[in-house]
Give the backbone structure.
Amino acid sequence: RAAPGGAIGVAHRIATRDLPAPPTRGTVAEERAALETASHALRTRLSQASDHSGIAEAHMSLLDDPEFRAAVADEIAAGASAPAAWRAATRREIAALEATGNTLFAQRGADLLDVERRIVALLVGEESGRADLPENAIVIADDLLPSEFLALDHARLAGIATVKGGPTSHTALLAASRGIPMLVSCPAEILKIVDAEPLLLDPDAPVLHRRPEPELVDRIAGDLEHDRARAQAETSAAREDCFTADGARVEVFANCGSAEDAEAAVRHGAEGCGLLRTEFLFLGQQRAPSRDEQTAAYREIAEALAGRPLIVRTLDAGSDKPLAFLAMAAEPNPALGARGIRLSLRNLALLEEQFLAILQGVPAGQCRIMVPMVVDLAEFRAAQSLLRATEQRLDVTVPTPLGVMVETPAAALIAEELAREADFLSLGSNDLAQYTLAADRQNPALASAADPLHPAVLRLIHRTTEGAHAQGKGVGICGSLASDSMATALLIGLGLDELSVGPRSVPAIKARVRQLRLQECRHLADAALRESTAEGVRRLIREAEGETSL
Ligand code: PEP
Ligand code: MG
């Protein structure tokens, strides 16, 4: 499943087809001119359609990629029509990307295809309009490109099922951020479903039921209605600040990767952004974003948060997030290679540009910065001295709070020393689990092995909160463990002051915090720290839920 939730509705097939492109057409000059006109039209449309998700921007940069344009120009010079030339260059690049087997490159392939379909449609004069959907449509497609998703009438769209696409594809992320359930990797038989066939997208299991039994429809309709009512009640309660039942303050922030996320975070009651993943500005780009582009993006996000605190994480590239514009040496174990702050400290000009853009885009007072993948104090000090020098260049007199992400066992073990100099700590439990348990988080076969509820991870989290508090500093958690309401009691018991969760999880996590009592959370944490397996910790959590107000 790529975007959570269930739906009851009727099938609507979307056949994504390649429009025929005539192999040859006008003269070379005519085809060049036609291509310029179509590119200009698409550029205008993309800039109007920018929905802050970064996707329109990514498509724009593909459209303007000089190497790619040169390949198309060569095809036209060799006699191909403009649409045939664009398609040939696209398909060649996609084949080369697919050969790498890297999922991020596959994403770029999907984006290239999306741009190709739109350019060819403009060149052959057959642009499809906004698809007319029936009420409660469950869209069935082989694959659904971001522009095709955005062209759908979302008021009538109940769900999506596709044969292709992965859970981290742009379309899946867009669907999740709009609360539209989506299933990917469905069997190819779904393409035989005819329009208007009744369908049920199961909210509990990743299954699409065809012509569901009335009993199942009634039961799921009841569940969905119940979930909707609860989510509505939680969302309206989420506007209030959050305290445990016995009055301990716990801040609930949201993780964001775009201005759209920041808007969703505020709508769902987040008190700030606890992690802005700035990679969205850098990945898949042929050149580093300019300072102005970065400043504009940070400003838009800060404005969406309307004065609430914004913790910007400096670029966390490397490992599974390679940068196309930096020459990066091939590494045998990239997760243990030059990533996060290590990579930034080897490219100081890039880090300095980012600091300048953050300081110019986010108002002082609202702005906090943190650095990822720190393993020692020297790295923190290097980042801090560059930040202070950058502040001086801009005549910023009040120092910006600078925090450390605790994502490695090394950082957790020296948390107190880090907290002595850093302004705050933020636990990245995704990487902390990966590095503590030697379990690659990218490897689906190890999904259950990289379990952040393993007592070794919990002991490192505890050591981190103790270290931060001994130095009078606050500590938050922004890994996905924070979004799991099963872990909320444990995290509060371990001493976390702030939970930063997916924007849509804010209401449920706030509702959970309000049910808890600090003393009971601490007892649970004490017992969990003495366990020796993740299963043991889960059992304790379930028992505590049965016995106490937990
Ligand atoms: C983490 O590692 O927990 C984290 C929040 O960072 P990311 O998931 O972006 O690596
Ligand atoms: Mg991380």
Residues 96 and 109 are 9 Å apart (CA to CA).
